[in-house]
Design goal:
The protein has a domain of 124 residues: Ribonuclease H-like superfamily/Ribonuclease H (Nucleotidyltransferase, domain 5), CATH 3.30.420. The two termini are 23 Å apart. The mean pLDDT is 89. The chain is built from ten helices and ten strands. 35% of the residues lie in helices and 15% in strands. By secondary structure, the protein is α+β, with helices and mostly antiparallel strands. The strands form three sheets. The protein has a five-stranded mixed β-sheet, sandwiched between helices. The protein has a three-stranded antiparallel β-sheet with strand order 1-2-3, with no helix packed on it.
């Protein structure tokens, strides 16, 4: 590990105190009955950080009901892994995480997916609004046709590619979705649910033109004739996001299976939404992820087999 590393990444007691501070700003919360600040600390050599709820008479720790519950990995290793994933702009591979933490590749892979689950946002309100602009576009995730044998090339919309559809509010946040097709039937519900009706929508001249016309205004740029900017009409913001996503998948993860794409999208969305341009540094970004670990417990069986990353 690097020198001058924070104590919470090397010491179990410090890691637990840090997580308790983030999860319980107003005192211990019982995960069994939900009562706040009516618990007493229990001194135990076998189970550190144990609390007793005086309301429901149950015992608990700060990890109960979180992505860390029942994990045999030390909590300080979890916090270090979380920090690495949150502070790496293009992600960090499970092989690299395995080497840095001293755990097996399988363990590092599962830890990464649990942390990505913590990055997944809770339900939020629509993007945009009066006077605001949202850009929409899709990109295709998968191997490049030029690297395949001619008999296996399927073209841009080939079935071996996964489709990521994203919405970016200028100066705000991004929301990405793994969709099966780029059609009005698929994209319509996403747009109606996640974009305010008074929003100005920008897109290219692709398949989302018709479904975007239901908003306050909808303008497009015609990439097919070399048009990329016309006044304030452009999709440069979302193209910038896609460039980071593609660099991460190509350079760090190499390729991502369709089965797990939604979690990788959540990872890149989270880092974009908690970016330095919005006044967020690596430590606060990592702490935000730690505040979202509750209620998102993920089991190895539910993630399916290990995908190539």
């Amino acid at each position: 590990m690097p020198k001058n590393i924070p104590l919470r990444f090397t010491n179990e007691a410090a890691a637990r105190k840090h997580l308790e501070r983030l999860q319980w700003p107003d005192g211990p919360i019982c995960p069994h009955c939900g009562v706040i600040d009516r618990a007493s600390a229990i001194k135990s050599d076998r189970r550190k950080g144990l609390w007793f709820c005086n309301a429901c008479r149950e015992q608990f720790t700060v990890t109960v009901g979180t992505i860390f519950e029942r994990s045999k990995i030390p909590l300080h290793a979890w916090l270090y892994a979380n920090h690495l994933l949150c502070s790496s702009k293009k992600g960090i591979s499970s092989h690299q995480l395995s080497r840095m933490l001293g755990v097996t590749y399988k363990t590092a892979w599962f830890m990464s997916h649990r942390i990505r689950e913590a990055m997944r946002p809770l339900k939020t309100g629509p993007l945009g609004g009066e006077g605001k602009t949202v850009e929409i576009d899709e990109t295709y995730i998968g191997g490049k046709d030029k690297n395949k044998h001619a008999s296996k090339r399927k073209g841009r919309g080939g079935m071996d590619k996964a489709i990521a559809f994203a919405l970016v509010e200028r100066g705000g946040s991004v929301r990405s979705h793994h969709v099966p097709t780029v059609t009005a039937k698929t994209l319509g519900p996403i747009l109606r649910e996640q974009i305010h009706a008074d929003t100005k929508v920008m897109s290219d001249d692709g398949g989302n033109t018709r479904v975007a016309s239901q908003f306050a205004s909808h303008q497009t740029v015609n990439h097919s004739i070399g048009e990329y900017v016309r006044g304030d009409v452009h999709t440069n913001t979302i193209e910038g996001y896609f460039s980071i996503l593609k660099r991460g998948i190509t350079g760090t993860y190499h390729h991502v299976s369709a089965q797990h794409l939604k979690r990788y999208l959540a990872e890149f969305d989270f880092r974009y939404n908690e970016r330095i341009a919005l006044g967020v540094n690596d430590d606060t970004r990592a702490d935000t992820a730690l505040m979202n670990v509750r209620g998102k417990r993920l089991t190895y069986a539910s993630t399916g087999k290990i995908g190539a990353i």
